[in-house]
Amino acid sequence: xxxxxxxxxxGLENVLAEEIKNIGGQNVQPITRAVIFKGDNEALYRANxxxxxxxxxxxxxxxxxxxxxKEFYDQARQINWQRYMAVDDTxxxxxxxxxxxxxxxxxxxxxxxxxxxDYFRDKRGRRPNVDVEYPDLRVNVHAFNSxxxxxxxxTGIPMxxxxxxxxxxxxxxxxxxxAGILKLTDWDCQTPLIDPMCGSATFATEACMMAxxxxxxxxxxxxxxxxxDFDSKLWGNLRQEAKDRRLPHPTATIAAxxxxxxxxxxxxxxxxxxxxxxxxxxDRRNFFDALTDGTQSGKLLIMNPPYGERIDGGSGxxxxxxxxxxxxxxxxxxxxxxxxxxxxxxxxIKRIGLxxxxxxxxxxxxxxxxxxxxxxxxxxxxxxxxx
Length: 387
Description:
The chain is α/β, with parallel strands linked by helices. The chain folds into 2 domains: 2-153, VC0802-like, CATH 3.30.2130.30; 175-216 and 246-386, Vaccinia Virus protein VP39 (Rossmann fold). It has helices spanning 13-22, 41-50, 69-77, 105-124, 175-184, 202-211, 232-245, 261-273, 319-333, 381-386, and strands at 2-7, 26-31, 34-39, 56-65, 90-98, 129-130, 137-144, 147-153, 193-195, 254-258, 280-284, 300-303, 338-343, 358-364, 367-375. An 8-stranded mixed β-sheet has the order 2-3-1-4-8-7-5-6. Strands 11-10-9-12-13-15-14 form a 7-stranded mixed β-sheet, covered by helices on one side. It starts with a strand and ends with a helix.
């Protein structure tokens, strides 16, 4: 058993903690934008394969205090780097720094690079090479004030890069954020789900993967596969177990609509790359068009409408009118359903004209957002409850 850190977005810490418990993590402790836990190699591998709301899975190898760059360099150089790589291996450094002592992440990464290179020069007479794209070992440095944690990165490319997106629309939704939002809605993978402003169809794709019990790490490789002590047999068994768990079809109907044909073309390519095209109803529809088929009751709607001041390609209406129209369409067309809306326009979302039953603060990149839930009733709320 050893310490493991799983990083995530603000607001998803408790969701990730529950995922980690489900894959066998021990002593699970959510902190800001991360979850700390203990596990063995199997837990580490499972976390990369199965955690939908993690960005990176890191293994800390040294923690210490440093009050200047020399103290940092000296202690980083004392680490037994031959335990993790050979002089002929390549490496790369990612770093995050906050606080008044270390203010430049790139400079901190440079000092760590020098410490590793000088360690091998002293031990082996030459330095290993840096490869920022495909290193044999990726090192993560986290500095908060004087507290330093140096970890090895088992993930590599962030887990939000699932591997199924071939193209993206403008301002795409991150895959980890989409999966986290689906978890926050308490979707049961049974209720029919619709994303009526789907863009590149991230919500629909992540929902379909959840409803078919597809491991989110199924489409890609991980940095740990290059580690010197990587257990390829264990990893192969876990990947085979994931294949065996996959259901033949989703446990819920899933639909993705958009009025933009270019967005639908992108969505179609991504869904096809994920191998899910036969399970997601993808169609060109305008959310604001009146519905006459009477089939929208009892759905879960989830959407990420535009945040900006103007809507590209639209009528030129400002965001206030646009969000007011969203509220009107929900009330007119989706009675007895539930709608979850993520928006970074904190003023416009107030114009929907419905009282949210839940509000959750999230960040979509650097943009502060609100995820709000709207309960939709046929007539008054009181009458709906009496029914």
